UniProtKB/TrEMBL annotation:
Span of domain Cytidylate kinase: 7-204
EC number: 2.7.4.25
Catalyses which reaction(s): CMP + ATP = CDP + ADP; dCMP + ATP = dCDP + ADP
Subcellular location: Cytoplasm
Gene responsible for this protein: cmk
Name of protein: Cytidylate kinase
Family indicated by similarity: Belongs to the cytidylate kinase family. Type 1 subfamily.
HAMAP family according to UniProt: Cytidyl_kinase_type1
InterPro entries attached to this UniProt entry: Cytidylate_kin, Cytidylate_kinase_dom, P-loop_NTPase
GO molecular function: kinase activity
Keywords assigned by UniProt, alphabetized: ATP-binding, Cytoplasm, Kinase, Nucleotide-binding, Transferase
Family annotation (SUPFAM superfamilies): P-loop containing nucleoside triphosphate hydrolases (SSF52540)
Source organism (scientific name): Algimonas porphyrae
Residues reported in the UniProt entry to bind ATP: G11, T12, F13, A14, S15, G16, K17, G18, T19
Length: 213
């Protein structure tokens, strides 16, 4: 029996990796996990309990008690939760708690997207992609998304927050955001989602077929 198909998708914030992951999961008939939601849910539950984002111990406790059924909470997509998630994600204790959850999810085959899937969570994934796009284009995508949620934000603020988040994600001591050595880079700056999906499928199929030889 062949190993289950695991597709690890890492990338910068608002690069389109989440939408790409959902489309690939549907194409290959796999489960999908937006691992960023685990950190957003951690931050949400931490704050709801009266905890502080700078309390690593309380954050780890919140992570250990996440209810997976609440990961579709629309509030998790808000700008505030995104910023809060980036803060709790720097704690090694939080990342360790969520490591097992993610690996168990991937064990039977899945598409996972996040910041450290190919480097830490699923280093033996069948295929690894690293998705990126120009900061200004990512900021514009996120700005339009937040305005669609009814949030009163400016493009300048979104771009500033995005750059700060990139710096924090790429420079944290534990599991910094970086492409895995064997990841395939996909720049979505000037690709439609359909074109990005088509390109990704071609890459995945080529890797899978090569491994089957």
């Amino acid at each position: 029996m062949s190993d289950p198909l695991v597709i690890a998708i890492d990338g910068t914030f608002a690069s389109g990796k989440g939408t790409l992951a959902k489309r690939l999961a549907a194409h290959y008939g796999l489960k999908h996990l937006d691992t960023g939601k685990l950190y957003r849910a951690t931050a949400r539950d931490l704050l709801a309990s009266g905890g502080a984002l700078d309390d690593a111990e309380a954050a780890a406790l919140a992570a250990a008690h996440i209810d997976a059924d609440t990961l579709d909470d629309p509030y998790l997509k808000s700008g505030g939760m995104g910023a809060a998630a980036s803060k709790v994600s720097v704690y090694p204790s939080v990342r360790q708690v969520l490591l097992e959850f993610q690996r168990n999810f991937a064990s039977q085959g899945a598409v996972l997207d996040g910041r450290d899937i190919g480097t830490v969570i699923c280093p033996d994934a069948t295929v690894k992609l690293f998705v990126d796009a120009e900061p200004e284009l990512r900021a514009d995508r996120r700005f339009r998304e937040l305005r669609g949620y009814g949030e009163d934000v400016t493009l300048e603020t979104v771009l500033s927050d995005l750059k700060e988040r990139d710096h924090r994600d790429m420079n944290r001591a534990v599991a910094p955001l970086k492409p895995a050595a064997d990841a395939h880079l996909l720049d979505t700056s000037h690709l439609s989602i359909d074109a990005a999906v088509t390109t990704a499928i071609a890459l995945i199929d080529a890797v899978v077929n090569a491994k089957a030889q």
